[in-house]
Design a protein that fits this description.
The chain is 39% helix and 23% strand. By secondary structure, it is α/β, with parallel strands linked by helices. The protein has a 6-stranded mixed beta sheet with strand order 7-8-9-4-10-11, with helices on both faces. Strands 1, 2, 3, 5 and 6 form a 5-stranded antiparallel beta sheet that branches. β1 (2-10) and β2 (16-21) form a beta hairpin. The longest helix has 18 residues, at 166-183. The radius of gyration is 18 Å and the shape is globular. The relative contact order is 0.17. It binds adenosine-5'-triphosphate. Adenosine-5'-triphosphate (ATP) is lined by residues 11, 13, 15, 17, 35, 37-43. It holds the Pfam family ABC_tran.
């Protein structure tokens, strides 16, 4: 689902945000992308979602060449940014239908697709809700609903549970697992929470200073009775949680 070779990004100010990363994500995997602030996670994700042009390297995303066929890549992926897609004051069902029509669906088909997506995320009956009145967890699920309208094979989630309470986080993990189990959606997510990576991800990639410094299943990385926190500290010399500044 994702194959990159030497993907890198140097910004105009000379910042080497990503220094040549090789990423392999297989179909149906849930892969966590971890790293301290400024490590290069968002830059990598923006490149993989066609929002930022790499300086060098190659990538095939959802079966299409990232540089030569970006529109085809976009058709096959969903992206939930940190800020989310939910407008606080517009009825969300209406907004979702409009978005579905932008993806080329007729009004009837759009309505049916929105019903289907909302039901799949346990949001049935909330068509008239507005963002401002939603709890953090529901709001996040609406963000995901926007990204699923066009039935993407690959979903990118940028810090999906930041700011959620423990119960809402666990609920969101269940939904991500369900997407994979029921729709074979591949998921690539960034997180600052090592417990999230541990509980949800088949594999994690750890990036530091623009380079992948470790990867593997959480259980493979946690050798010798170490937690993922210990592993992270050993590799980078820093604590992910302290860097993130929002606890875990
Ligand atoms: N538009 C830009 N112009 C110049 N430098 C940038 C730009 N965007 C990011 N950078 C730099 O690139 C590096 C990687 O940033 P990036 O946002 O990808 O990190 P991150 O791992 O997502 O961090 P965070 O966890 O804080 O979101 C940082 O040093 C950052 O300052």
């Amino acid at each position: 689902m994702i194959e990159t070779l030497g993907l890198s990004k140097t910004f105009r100010n000379g910042a080497h945000a990503v220094r040549g990363v090789d990423i392999h994500v297989g179909q149906g995997e849930i892969v966590g992308f971890l790293g301290p602030n400024g490590a290069g996670k968002t830059t990598t994700m923006r490149m993989l979602t066609t929002l930022l042009r790499p300086t060098s390297g190659t990538a095939v995303v959802a079966g299409r060449d990232l540089l030569r066929e970006p529109a085809e890549v976009r058709r096959r992926i969903g992206y939930v940014s940190q800020g989310g897609a939910v407008n606080p004051f517009t009825p969300l069902g209406e907004e979702l239908e409009l978005q579905a029509m932008l993806h080329g669906l007729t009004r009837d088909r759009a309505r049916a697709r929105v019903r289907e997506v909302l039901a799949g995320l346990d949001l049935a009956g909330t068509r008239d809700a507005i963002g401002a009145t939603l709890s953090g967890g529901r709001r996040r699920r609406f963000d995901i609903a926007f990204a699923l309208l066009h039935e993407p094979a690959l979903l990118f989630l940028d810090e999906p549970t930041t700011g959620l309470d423990p119960q809402s986080r666990a609920n969101l993990w269940d939904h991500v697992r369900r997407l994979r189990a029921e729709h074979d959606v591949t998921v690539f997510l960034t997180t600052h929470y090592l417990d999230e990576a541990d509980a949800l991800c088949d594999r994690v990639l750890i990036i530091d200073h623009g380079l992948i410094v470790a990867e593997g299943a959480p259980a493979e990385l946690k050798t010798g009775g170490r937690t993922l926190d210990d592993v992270f500290l050993d590799i980078t010399g820093r604590s992910l949680r302290e860097e993130a500044g929002h606890g875990a």
